[in-house]
Records
---
Amino acid sequence: MLELFVQRLRDYAETQPNHHALADESITLTYSQLWERVQQLTATIRQAPYQRIALDMENSVNWVVYDLAIVLSERVCIPIPPFFTPQQRLDVLRDCGADVVISANGKMQPLSQTTSAELPTGTAKITYTSGSTGIPKGVCLSAANMLKTVFALAERIGHVNTKRHLVLMPLAVLLENVAGVYLSLWLGHEVVLDSPENLGITGSSSLDLSSFSVALKRYKAQSLILTPALLAAIVHNVENNQLDATTFKLLAVGGARLPEPLEQRAYALQLPLLQGYGLSEFGSVVTFNSPINPAPGTVGKPLAHAKVEIKENEVWVSGNCMLGYLNQPQTWYPEALPTGDLGQFDACGNLQLLGRKKNTIVTAYGRNVDPEWLEGLIALEPEISQVVVLGDEQLPLTALLVPHQDGMDAAKLIERINRDLPDYAKIHQFKLLSTPFTVANEQLTGTGRLRRDVIRAHYEPILFVNAMPHEVIL
């Protein structure tokens, strides 16, 4: 499969040599120039003694060129997520046994390793996720794992008339790396990269709506990979005439549960929204909606390379499983994987996600409640910056709210939310927080997921104290 991808790049270098392939603030490469740069760098890497090469760079043209050259050299590429803490970065470099790390200026810094990390044969990339515990876990993937995903996505959405993809997520996030960059290059499109600051994105929990809108217009972005929060920003700007919905050709949404009201608003604006679902352990994408006939409220049907089964309400996947976790031989070469997600198929074979298995709240009355459902509804309120819903048999459903600004009437907001909820899912109490959930305080993963156990442990002393509407927890 790698040969097919190499041949496609070579063909584009000959058939559309002057078409833009990659562009950032300082560099623009045509397909001819990209092919030449990748060839040269591949030759250099093959002559070097390094087998495991860590990429410690921000999003840029050079990041993509190095990534391609490392994979084409049949070396192991290890992207270091920029949102990792200094300690996590050290843990990753120690864990993966990297021989060398490439920094932003392209400088190669050899590393002295005292231990040799175990990885399965055929590993082309080790992608790290901080997960819910904050401890980096290395997912080992082959080139075939990633390219099977690319080819399956091209089959599902390759006919959509997009020509320019704007990268929003860190390239160390496999979804953007594979479904954003690799897919766009396979289809002969242009990939545009910029710094998070210029895009209006700060960390994993802050977004400047104005800067974000300006960037989307400046780059004339046609395809984007979005989290629900970024989609909400686009919907808001379109509703307020800051963006033109017709400029977008494909808005792929994943990474967290998409609230139904937000999905309905997007479709009402005729935004080309398509939900998908996947995980790093499967090469990033498992299911995806069809552009021709999207099914609202679902994440679409399995892609051609994926088989999806529901076992005891849990989603299991097979067909393109990872090679295994780094340093965990007992996990190598799995035939099928439990995802930890609860789901079901609709009558047409589209997958509907029902929440995370481990996040499900069982109330004192024995009812199961998905906190992401409630959080998604509350997060749609313009006064709310962040929210987490906690609860169990002893703790009634409790919302921890981070407002955008002081003076919010949280009691009225919760009353409004509860009005449309069934009795068993109503919020019983809330706490207003003045400190947001961040990567720095270890209450968010690097990709913006809530670390519920950490948050609960931090606020445990006040959870069982009845909250007053004006109460603010520092």
---
Amino acid sequence: MNSLFKALNDPTRRQILELLRVQSLTAGEIADSCQVGKPTVSHHLDILRQAELIEEERQGQFRRYHLNTSVVEDVMVWLSGLVEAPKPAAKKAAVALKRLKPRTSP
């Protein structure tokens, strides 16, 4: 999780994610869009890969990068759990259901 937040902490990496949200791109296309050098883009792509936010696919001599939406979805679920407080009625119902559950013998 730390590598994920480290990856999201940089504005250039967030810009790369926005670009990849629209379409898959090569490192050169990303560098052109972000107006940074290719070595800088390679560094950012490496950090995004380590956080599993992007995936790469070889196409001939090029590598195309695309957004890994499953990791983003997992983070969204985790974050939404932090902001949603457990409802007292739901807690009581869970306790009641636990009491009603038939016990199995060993």
